[in-house]
Amino acid sequence: MTDDMVRLHDEVLAMRKDRGALMNSLQKEAKLRTKAVTHLCAHFGHVRAKMAKHTKQARLTFLNNLKSSVGALRKDMADDLTGARRAWAGK
Fold this sequence. Notes:
The protein is mainly α. About 95% of the residues lie in helices and about 0% in strands. It has one domain (about 1-65). The N and C termini lie far apart (about 125 Å).
């Protein structure tokens, strides 16, 4: 029975040691994961800002092209209406 008690005592001590090592490992992994997530979030922020700047410029270019296209279409329509009025008036 004494041998069993010694073996049980040794197993308990080994498990405590393993549990301590596991806890230390988990803490280190948590710190590393925290750093990785922080780095990833910073990267996302940088990419998002760069994308926002690019899309803003693309939107402005599109709107300027749209404005000039619509202006040209309106001028053509006005010229067509003027021509139609002259044709109806017999001039």
